[in-house]
């Protein structure tokens, strides 16, 4: 289950990078990934990393309407990508 959630984080990074570099990203894809990240964040709300998921979901929603700073999107994508990669790597 953790690996599926990590893959969702990786998809979130890909969509964030597409949005940050003004690629023709389908709005439906952005909405779906943002909603899934927010849902994942609200399910595990007591974990500090889930606040990041909710924040990324909100940023993705906002990116549909306003132009967000590139540096902000790249930093958030880097942190989310690190979280996703670390959830895919076995610890022992």
Provide structural commentary.
With 92 residues, the chain is an all-alpha fold. It has one domain (2-86). It contains four helices and no strands. It has helices at residues 2-20, 27-43, 48-63, 70-88. Helix 1 crosses helix 2 and helix 3 packs across helix 4. The longest helix has 19 residues, at 2-20. The radius of gyration is 12 Å and the shape is globular. The mean pLDDT is 91.
Protein topology:
Layout: H1 2-20, H2 27-43, H3 48-63, H4 70-88
Helix pairs in contact: 1-2, 1-3, 1-4, 2-3, 3-4
Name some characteristics of this structure.
single chain; 92 residues; mainly alpha; 4 helices; 0% strand
List unreliable stretches of 5+ residues.
none
Q: How many separate domains?
A: 1
Tally of separate helices: 4
Strand segment tally: 0
What is the general shape?
globular
Mind describing the biggest β-sheet? none
What sequence of helices (H) and strands (E) makes up the elements?
Answer: HHHH
The proportion of residues in beta strands is: under 5%
Distance between the termini: 17 Å
Helix fraction, binned, reads over 70%
In terms of structural class, how would the helical and strand content be classed?
mainly alpha
Quick check: average pLDDT? Answer: 91
The rounded Rg comes to 12 Å
């Amino acid at each position: 289950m953790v690996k599926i959630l990590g893959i969702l984080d990786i998809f979130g990074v890909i969509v964030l990078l597409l949005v940050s570099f003004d690629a023709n990203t389908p709005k439906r894809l952005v909405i779906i990934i943002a909603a899934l990240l927010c849902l994942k964040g609200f399910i595990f709300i007591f974990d500090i990393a889930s606040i990041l998921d909710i924040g990324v979901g909100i940023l993705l929603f906002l990116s549909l309407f306003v132009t967000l700073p590139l540096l902000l999107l790249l930093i958030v994508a880097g942190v989310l990508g690190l979280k996703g990669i670390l959830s895919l790597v076995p610890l022992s």
